[in-house]
């Protein structure tokens, strides 16, 4: 049985909050760090408290969650013996694992925001609020009561754009895994419900007969999870040019080109359900937006096999290893930077998506999808060495034509560049108290 009050809310439930701030903190004094953690779970008056997975009676104005890097565990006084029981990819960290997930060239750590190369990046405190003021208030209350031995390195703000779109103009935040024992995430899909152990340590996982080892001591590991914190810059000028160029080359409407790249029209309507229009008449009910599979479309004639959503969640498609639904990820990202104004292109502003990509195993979820599905096409027929149109380095998007033919969009540019990454442990509530020495 899952005790939702023991689990950080960010793992199991979408807060549907339109504003976020991530405070990146360094712990210089273990005792100050422990005091900070303790104050987030002990009901201290005036201190924001960690939001759990337990249902709300009233939606708060701001939610708070805490993630800790391996360096952070060390800085809080966790022993090397205990750290050795954590998975190797977590203790190695995002910089060391960059090449595996395609963070090379312009996405290489050498080009990241310096804070993500700083070994002093210990804690990520994520605030999710209804308004920017609610986030400000929570951040002020948090930092005002924090002892000098904990220092803010940097803050990263993000927000929902009007229409719930990302900077490329796609409605985002539709598909999330349904987790056994957790609140329903939004529009349902047809996949088997994910076991809690796909996202939380100490429960049977998505691989039959396998439970991921709980880092020790048990009080620290149980009901924890792992997250890749990512800052991903989007090149919206390149995206706009790509739509225009490919539309000229193929004769397809630019909106159809956009739908091929993503697997959903920019309206959020999946190609799998509506291959000809992003605005079907009558409209798809919101609950139907995630209710589809690809089994009836093995060649990708409706939805390209190489499109972003089909790569990131192949659902019932045939994929190498047969594990199409065993690598699911909870996404908690929002956009950063100003909205793109097509009337004023090339404004020199950085914009993109930032947030947490969560799973019980960084290796088998975040790293797996980035390495096997995003940056190497060989997992499914017809993809060659192509890469994810959003997450890869550019190249081609293979397309199947009716009647058994194949064509491709070619000369795709790189659209997304990694600006930072951090591998974090997302401890359960008792584990935060344990780290605080309570
Ligand atoms: C700037 C970078 C990215 C952009 C612009 C982007 C865009 C999108 C969009 C528009 C959707 C469709 C909306 C939805 O189904 O909720 C989507 C879905 C998804 N994305 Fe991304 N994404 C980005 C990065 C990533 C990364 C880094 C990962 C994984 C590590 C990822 C994994 C997924 C998954 C799992 C889905 C849901 C697929 C499904 O269940 O059908 N995305 N993304």
UniProtKB/TrEMBL annotation:
Residues 60-158 form the DyP dimeric alpha+beta barrel domain. GO terms for molecular function: heme binding; metal ion binding; peroxidase activity. Residues 303-324 are annotated as: Disordered. It comes from the Bacteria. The keyword Oxidoreductase applies. InterPro entries: Dimeric_a/b-barrel (IPR011008), DyP_N (IPR049509), Dyp_peroxidase (IPR006314). Belongs to the DyP-type peroxidase family. This is Dyp-type peroxidase family.
